[in-house]
Amino acid sequence: MIRITELRLPISHPPEALEEAILKRLQIKPADLLRTEVFKRSYDARKNVALAFIYTVDLSIKDEEKVLKQFSNDVHIRPSPDTSYHFVANASQLKTQAFERPVVIGFGPCGIFAALLLAQMGFKPIVLERGKPVRERTQDTWGLWRKNVLNPESNVQFGEGGAGTFSDGKLYSQIKDPKFYGRKVISEFIKAGAPEEIRYVAKPHIGTFRLVGVVEKMRQEIIRLGGEIRFTQKVIGFDIADEQIKAVKIEGHPDLPANHVILALGHSARDTFKALHEAGVYMEAKPFSVGFRIEHPQSLIDRARLGPHAGNELIGAADYKLVHHAKNGRAVYSFCMCPGGTVVAATSEPNRVVTNGMSQYSRNERNANAGIVVGITPEDYPGGPLAGIDFQRALESKAYELGGSTYEAPGQLVGDFLAGKASTEFGTVLPSYKPGVHLTDLAESLPAYAIEAIREAIPEFEKQIKGFSMKDAVLTGVETRTSSPLRISRGPNFQSINIKGLYPAGEGAGYAGGILSAGVDGIKVAEAVALDYLS
Questions:
Q1: Residues linked to residue 332 through DSSP beta bridges, in sequence order
Q2: Strands 409-413 and 437-439
Q3: 67, 76, 185, 432: least buried by Cβ within 10 Å?
């Protein structure tokens, strides 16, 4: 196949215009074009440029060799890379089928794809998920949002689908992906009911409600292939002997023998991190970030980012990505930006407040929100591998107190935050966080260096997005679960560097950040497990 890049068309072009542009670009006749597939579609919405889609297209034509030779000096016409997925092993290759089944702990994006790949290769994995199936979990999550009632084992962090279920459902990442594992992730989501457009749009997303159905269908496929999903089974310990994993200890259940265990824990499984540490599994503290959620009218972001193209339905709600290096040496940046979304309660522990962002597929809520977070390092929280967890908990407990000790979140208007005074009433921007926002002074909610850096960054972000520092914009605290505060170190074989058969994976182990990268890491680790069975 041949790939054409940088093929530009007006955003409102008719469907046949793409084929016409291909024929013109390659100087071929309609009969010579056999098949066309859009690999990527982005848009150019600069204020002084005609609104245009930019296509990357893969196609089959007659006499491809001749055309490639004809355009050999054109960097935008090249052979298409092979983006299809190729399995590395199959359980049928084992000398005996009486093997101990692999165990996957956690059923978020990483655990789902690790289990799915193992099932597709015939290894019939057993998945242990401490939370509930996704629809039951959704009801429990609403219990916190609507009734101020937290279920510590079934919430935004724990349960089928992981933390990614209650997010924007973003499916893009900046990871290096030379083997196109990301395409495998996208393809499986589409098979499970995600919209076809996520295959080619530049910044694909699914949205929370659609993710619920997608996750259910992926679970059903794993079961159909011989896998097993065991809900409400909380891992509380590990049986390790001679530097080899032997079994997994489950609360209220017999130990589960296992010599291949994938740790797809997510970034909030703090008790499991402690159990691993007590079992002697090597881990180390790592950098992460803390900050607030900021909310603006989505219409303001659309105008600032898209100019005269704001409101165009073919483009949708605008997003942004911002970074500022403060004078005190701290990096401040936007995190998990959710166009047309809501700020959500994301704690998994009693008497603590944590914020996150979420959007539906339509992205049509009134406000835009994003984390505005400050990078921190283990030097800021000395004390060993688990010290970052203690640091997070202290901030989350303080946020609970500042919010009135009811699971309402502490909040402040941007104008008051910059002026250093407590807020007493909302302006034109009403916060979306449920159970509610309690206005206060957020200066007490984060370390002084973080407050100083964010106060410096917001006016700087105004230079890039007009209106970003609007006085009525709302800050809601605190955002602490940006990524795992530790890394469970692994070697080139994807196993723990000191415990054989233990495979740290995904965001919780410090090897991913977001749905797509977590899914990709799940695939890589599943491959490593399969190859180890055959070694």
A1: 324, 374
A2: parallel
A3: 76
Which among 413, 418, 411 is positioned nearest to 460, based on CA atoms?
A: 418
Contacts of 117 (CB under 8 A, 6+ apart): 87, 522, 523, 526, 527, 530
Distance CA 270, CA 263 (A): 13
Give DSSP secondary structure letters for 249-312.
EETTEEEEE-S-EEE---TT-HHHHHHHHHTT---EE--EEEEEEEEEEHHHHHHHHHGGGTT-
In this structure, are residues 375 and 450 in contact, taking their beta carbons and an 8 Å threshold? no
| Pairing of the two strands 126-129 and 228-231 | parallel
In tens, the pLDDT along 101-131 reads: 999 999 999 999 999 999 999 999 999 999 9
Phi and psi torsions of 460, nearest 5°? -70, -40
In this prediction the pTM is 0.94
Distance CA 183, CA 177 (A): 9
Beta bridge partners of 295: 369, 474
In the Cβ-directed half-sphere of 418, how many Cα atoms lie within 13 Å? 16
Pairing of strands 52-61, 323-325: unpaired
Structure tokens at 175: 């990871």
Distance in angstroms (rounded) separating the CA atoms of residues 258 and 161: 23
Confidence of residue 286 (pLDDT cuts 50, 70, 90): very high
Mean pLDDT for all residues in the chain: 95
pLDDT for 47: 61
Helix (H) and strand (E) counts in the chain: 12, 23
Could you check whether the bond before residue 478 is cis, i.e. omega within 30 degrees of 0?
A: yes
